[in-house]
């Protein structure tokens, strides 16, 4: 059973999140206000239970078996991990608790209102702005091939007039085949009849919300015995809606999905056309969201090798990996993908990163050690740990520096060894590491003695080519540039249909040589219009 009591003073999740109060029910569980002990910040934590009670959290359930629930959660986590958009809620962390129950944390919005509540005191322009923001967020999801499937007031919040779309517990890829799901007042008629949902089904829900914002009433309400008749016979109440918008609302609400706009971007264009406004332009923040969170492409072989290594480590065959790359080839995206796969599979993941300049001693371990402290009693390993770490791993005195350093390294090793949960350690940019490299060497040299542990190290091979010789015990892996087909896939994922020409991909490959960072920079210029004329000219000349 999901515990919904508000007395949570003694309850923590993974030693990190102190549950403080219940905020409400989400699409697949309960949402709490929680204190993050690492950051000191308040988060919204969504906790999901994999048991029979889960089927009754939603008004209509997608899941009949626990296995289906697990697959749904894996999908949700993978979706959430990659979403970056000003009108999409930010996911801060996710994982599994000691009972192997999943959770994730989001930005806490203490003053949030539902979109219907926020619209009450706004004038016509303000109400239209809310709908435009909702469509922008939905367009981002649709561009990535994702349907929301549960758009309703409680999942569209507003803070300081900024719309945040949240709760993707019923999300799925466009090509997935799933059953009916969502909230009855906002489910499209064809979905109620058993058809697979499409982008047009999401837009039907937007049409309902749009009507409620403008008129204060559901277009087919009230939700009584005659609701379904009014819905399927198409008798919407639009009398109190601005007559300029009635044709658009009729398009959004019509029972036949093919007659609706086929994407949120299309709906945005129709809205601006109806109101006589210029076509909405994407803000820099929105453009950046498409560029930085495009579909992960071109590392299938590497992901397969690392996935097999994760499976082996869970059986006791721990391993370390040394990923050498040239600048900008895309090592961070690879680590993000591995982190997502590991967390869904029940691993705890710790990340550290070396810095070029301005870093403190043992900089790379400063994000890792606090997590160790939450999971391990370090004073049991070494009673002098407080002095050694000085609570922030400060520099030790020169008189006994080597002894203290050895003790610190041994303490870190033993703390990792004592972890009960499988542990993935991701250490980035080791080409800049100095004293931080010493514990890495010791861990890799003794990796086979560590149970259920995997270490992945990344470094720039062009800046420190000798690092392979310094780190014994790790398996080398080199990332190559993207090929022509992969460049074409990436460009289409970031810019949509206008980048679907092979000639543009060839131009990108010619200019960037398949370097992911350079591709993103060129795409940024394309998005801002500076390069698109050149790319268009190439296509025309072809």
Mean pLDDT: 77
Structural class: alpha/beta
Gap from first CA to last CA: 63 Å
Query: What percentage of residues falls in helices of 4 or more residues?
Result: 25-40%
Radius of gyration, rounded?
Answer: 26 Å
Main β sheet profile? 6 strands, antiparallel
Q: How would you describe the shape?
A: globular
* Strand numbers in spatial order across the main sheet: 1-2-3-4-6-5
Content of β-strand: 15-25%
- The poorly predicted ranges are 1-9, 52-61, 170-180, 388-399, 530-542
Count of discrete alpha- or pi-helical segments spanning 4 or more residues: 21
Q: Tally the beta strands.
A: 16
Summarize the structure in words.
With 542 residues, the chain is an alpha/beta fold. It has 21 helices and 16 strands. It has helices at 66-82, 115-119, 124-143, 189-192, 199-215, 227-232, 246-253, 264-274, 284-292, 300-313, 331-344, 369-375, 378-381, 385-389, 401-417, 437-445, 467-470, 484-495, 502-512, 516-527, 532-541, and strands at residues 12-13, 17-25, 30-36, 42-47, 91-96, 102-107, 113-114, 146-147, 156-159, 162-165, 172-173, 319-325, 348-353, 423-428, 453-460, 474-478. The strands form four sheets. Strands 1-2-3-4-6-5 form a six-stranded antiparallel sheet, with helices on one face. Helix 15 packs across helix 16 (437-445). The longest helix has 20 residues, at 124-143. The radius of gyration is 26 Å and the shape is globular. Residues 1-9, 52-61, 170-180, 388-399 and 530-542 have low confidence and may be disordered.
């Amino acid at each position: 059973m999901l515990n919904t009591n508000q007395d949570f003073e003694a309850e923590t999740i993974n030693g990190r999140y102190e549950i403080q109060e219940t905020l409400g029910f989400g699409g697949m569980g309960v949402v709490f206000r929680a204190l993050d002990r690492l950051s000191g910040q308040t988060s919204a934590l969504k906790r999901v239970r994999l048991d029979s009670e889960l089927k009754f959290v939603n008004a209509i359930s997608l899941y009949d078996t626990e296995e289906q629930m697990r697959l749904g959660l894996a999908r949700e986590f993978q979706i959430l991990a990659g979403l970056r958009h000003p009108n999409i809620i930010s996911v801060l962390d996710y994982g599994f608790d000691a009972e192997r129950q999943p959770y994730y944390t989001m930005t806490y919005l203490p003053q949030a209102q539902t979109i219907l509540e926020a619209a009450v005191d706004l004038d016509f322009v303000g109400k239209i702005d809310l709908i435009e923001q909702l469509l922008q967020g939905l367009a981002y999801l649709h561009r990535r091939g994702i349907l929301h499937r549960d758009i309703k007031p409680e999942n569209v919040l507003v803070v300081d007039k900024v719309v945040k779309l949240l709760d993707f517990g019923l999300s799925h890829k466009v090509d997935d085949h799933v059953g009916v799901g969502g909230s009855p007042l906002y489910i499209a008629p064809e979905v109620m009849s058993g058809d697979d949902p499409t982008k047009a089904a999401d837009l039907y829900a937007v049409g309902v919300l749009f009507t409620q914002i403008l008129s204060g009433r559901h277009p087919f309400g009230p939700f009584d015995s005659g609701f379904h008749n009014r819905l399927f016979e198409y008798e919407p109440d639009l009398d109190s809606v601005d007559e300029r918008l009635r044709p658009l609302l009729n398009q959004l609400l019509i029972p036949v999905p093919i007659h609706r706009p086929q994407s949120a971007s299309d709906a945005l264009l129709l809205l601006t056309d109806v109101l006589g406004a210029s076509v909405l332009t994407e803000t820099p923040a929105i453009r950046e969201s498409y560029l930085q969170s495009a579909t992960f492409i071109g590392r299938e072989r590497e992901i397969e090798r690392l996935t097999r290594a994760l499976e082996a480590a869970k059986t006791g065959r721990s391993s370390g990996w040394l990923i050498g790359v040239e600048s900008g080839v895309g090592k961070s995206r690879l680590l993000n993908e591995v982190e997502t796969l590991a967390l869904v599979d029940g691993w705890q993941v710790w990340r550290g990163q070396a810095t070029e300049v301005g870093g403190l001693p043992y900089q790379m371990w400063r994000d890792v050690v606090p997590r160790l402290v939450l999971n391990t009693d370090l004073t049991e390993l070494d009673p002098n740990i407080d002095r050694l770490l000085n609570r922030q791993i400060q520099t030790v005195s020169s008189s006994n520096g080597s002894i203290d350093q050895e003790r610190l390294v041994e303490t870190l090793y033993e703390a990792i060894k004592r972890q009960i949960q499988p542990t993935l350690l991701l250490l980035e940019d080791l080409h800049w590491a100095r004293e931080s490299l010493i514990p890495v060497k010791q861990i890799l040299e003794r990796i086979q003695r560590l149970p259920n542990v995997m270490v992945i190290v990344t470094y720039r091979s062009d800046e420190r080519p000798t690092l392979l010789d310094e780190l014994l015990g790790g398996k080398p892996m080199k990332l190559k540039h993207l090929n022509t087909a992969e460049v074409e896939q990436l460009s289409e994922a970031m810019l949509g249909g206008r980048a679907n020409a092979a000639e543009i991909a060839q131009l990108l490959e010619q200019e960037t040589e398949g370097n992911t960072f350079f591709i993103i920079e060129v795409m940024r210029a394309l998005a801002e219009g500076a390069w698109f004329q050149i790319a268009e000219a190439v296509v025309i000349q072809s």
